[in-house]
Amino acid sequence: MTDTPGHEPEGHEPEQRLPAVRPPAEAAPVERFTASRSVRTVELTPERAAQVVRQSSNARWVGFLAVVAVILFVAIYWFYELGLPFGWSQPRIGENGAEVAAQQVTAVERGYNLYEANCARCHGVDGEGGIGPVLNSQEKLFAHLNEDYLRNVFEAGGRYVCGNPDSLMPVWADTGHPPGPLNYRQIDELIAFIRAPSDQTFIVRDEELLDPKIDPVTGEVETFTGWVDPNYEPAPGSTPFPACWSDAFATPSGSPGASGEPTGSGEPTGSGEPAGSGAPSGSAAPSAPAGGDVVDIVASGVAFTTPNVTAPADTNFTIHFDNQDASIPHNVEIKDASGGVAFLGEVFPGVATRDYQVGPLAAGTYPFLCTVHPNMTGTLTAG
Ligand code: HEC
Ligand SMILES: [Cu+2]
């Protein structure tokens, strides 16, 4: 529509189409200024002029003060959060701030839930190991499982650990290739949980509501403690934990029964510690002339499916060990009555079999287990 006076369509009239024919009656000149002349002329009395000057100077002051207030607020808040310079006050946010400690607790508690949901099925509810290696050992936590290492493992998956491209451990970080299910915040929380100190107690919380979980039996709030013992120190002169966890099992260093080399090729003594293993295992040949009876032990699903086996007493025998778990390393370690190691078999990944030559055992029952997965157990009866 047009704003020319007199051109308003009267509702019912059909709208005019261009070119519109201007009715001659409306050609009269239009007075554009309708206010009276006196209003249109700008004339300031001296008083009014002075007032305008005063007012604009007031307005400048108001603006200036507002800016000063904002600057002061920013500066004061800055020091309130970060602390005064030169250590004049404790920062509210900072290395030793209470706020940070509270956030750390929250991260650990969320990390616990993430761990139980995603990791416990392979690494055990308390990190004691299972399909995946043990995580809660102080030896490992001391330096091996540091923050950078953990970050890399979650980013690259299990292949980062020992270079095994078929590792069962998937990529966890959503920045990995291929992307995993956890975002950077969840990765941080997992690391906070794995590195949490064992002298601190945390509360198990509901994943969504963050309410403390109540144990239905005792009626008490469920809690957990971290894994890292802050007072742990490796034994003086001990070798650091190997970069690849499975190397920790690679050399059964000088244990009494460590004659489990199936080949008997003489290599067991080649490791430069002849004194360690004593006479019986000095060479594989004499200790296993014929292998004797064969005892079958099978590992499947990270468990011994033959938990009760019998062997002849007081004579050499052979353990035919069948590891049916693809790319999961197992072995057989036989304990003696005093808890010492009576025999330690070589660790190897499945699917594969090994024949372990075991020296004579006195009649009795011997617990056996997998060194990698101490929760895999069985009993060997010699008699
Ligand atoms: C499907 C089983 C599986 C799941 C689930 C799993 N892992 Fe693993 N993890 C493994 C295996 C197997 C390895 C050993 C890597 C290799 O050498 O193949 C491993 C290795 C690791 C290592 C390195 C251990 C070392 O000694 O260097 C860390 C740390 C780890 N996992 C943490 C986690 C966390 C945290 C989660 C949960 C987010 C998780 N894993 C979930 C199987 C699993
Ligand atoms: Cu095992």
Characterization of this structure:
This protein is α+β, with helices and mostly antiparallel strands and 383 residues long. Among the domains are: 99-225, Cytochrome Bc1 Complex, Chain D, domain 2 (Orthogonal Bundle), CATH 1.10.760.10; 255-264 and 288-382, Cupredoxins -  blue copper proteins (Immunoglobulin-like, Sandwich). It is built from nine helices and twelve strands. The strands form four sheets. It has a five-stranded mixed β-sheet with strand order 4-12-11-7-8, with no helix packed on it. The chain has a three-stranded mixed β-sheet with strand order 3-5-10, with no helix packed on it. A two-stranded antiparallel ribbon has the order 1-2. Helix 3 packs across helix 8 (184-194). The longest helix is centred in the first third of the chain and has 37 residues, at 46-82. The protein is elongated, with a radius of gyration of 40 Å. The protein starts with 36 loop residues before the first helix and ends with a strand. Mean pLDDT is 81; it is low at 252-289. The site of copper (II) ion has 5 residues, from loops.
The named CATH superfamily of the domain at 99-225: Cytochrome c-like domain
The bound ligands are: heme C, copper (II) ion
Count of alpha and pi helical runs: 9
Please state the overall shape, judged from the principal axes of the Cα atoms. Answer: elongated
- What is the end-to-end distance? 111 Å
- What top-tier CATH class of the domain at 99-225 fits best? Mainly Alpha
Largest sheet features? 5 strands, mixed
Strand content: 5-15%
CATH architecture level-2 label of the domain at 99-225: Orthogonal Bundle
Radius of gyration: 40 Å
| Uncertain spans | 252-289
Q: Tell me the total number of β-strands.
A: 12
The secondary-structure element order is HHHHHHHHEEHEEEEEEEEEE
Structural class: alpha+beta
Q: What is CATH's topology name of the domain at 99-225?
A: Cytochrome Bc1 Complex, Chain D, domain 2
The helical percent reads 25-40%
Output mean pLDDT: 81
Main-sheet strand order equals: 4-12-11-7-8
